[in-house]
Amino acid sequence: MSDCIFCKIVSGDIPGDIVYQDEAVLAFRDLSPQAPVHFLVIPKKHISTINDFKSEDASLVGKLFLAAKIVAKQENIDESGYRCVMNCNDDGGQTVHHVHLHVMGKRQMTWPPG
């Protein structure tokens, strides 16, 4: 989508602090971090919300979490722990309508989160 900020990061039109990428996903540091380590993992393919996943996207969903695991190890939060959050639509807290997995660590997480 031409007006999607995350698609523009994928295409290189907007710079991002990229920490990982492969053929399917891209991970970059969050511009408004909520933890000492906070990065987003997105599919390179534009998918607006969790509700828009199709059965053929199942492998892609798995790749988001595998990328989160790889970057968590790079950031040295794999052993201490981290939180993965994916919001859906406005009431769910989604502010950019391109599926993205928040990965946060290097601090104690509380529950409930919001």
Describe, in plain words, how this protein is organized in 3D.
With 114 residues, this protein is an alpha+beta fold. The protein has one domain: HIT-like (HIT family, subunit A, 2-Layer Sandwich). It has two helices and five strands, in the order αβββαββ. It has a five-stranded antiparallel beta sheet with strand order 1-2-3-5-4, covered by helices on one side. A hairpin with a 3-residue loop joins β1 and β2 (25-29). The longest helix is centred in the middle third of the chain and has 17 residues, at 58-74. The model has no long low-confidence stretch (mean pLDDT 95).
Can you lay out the helices and strands and say which pair or pack?
Blueprint: H1 5-11, E1 18-21, E2 25-29, E3 37-43, H2 58-74, E4 82-85, E5 101-105
Antiparallel strand pairs: 1-2, 2-3, 3-5, 4-5
First-to-last CA distance: 30 Å
What is the number of helical segments per DSSP (H or I, 4+ residues)? Answer: 2
CATH class: Alpha Beta
Low-confidence runs: none
Strand proportion, as a percent range, falls in 15-25%
Determine the mean pLDDT. Answer: 95
Structural class: alpha+beta
Binned, the helix content reads: 10-25%
Outline the biggest β-sheet.
5 strands, antiparallel
| Helix/strand order, N-terminal first | HEEEHEE
CATH superfamily: HIT-like
Name its key features:
114 residues; globular; 5-stranded antiparallel β-sheet; 5 strands; HIT family, subunit A; alpha+beta
Write a brief structural summary:
The chain has helices at 5-11, 58-74; strands at 18-21, 25-29, 37-43, 82-85, 101-105. It is an alpha+beta fold. It has one domain: HIT family, subunit A (2-Layer Sandwich).
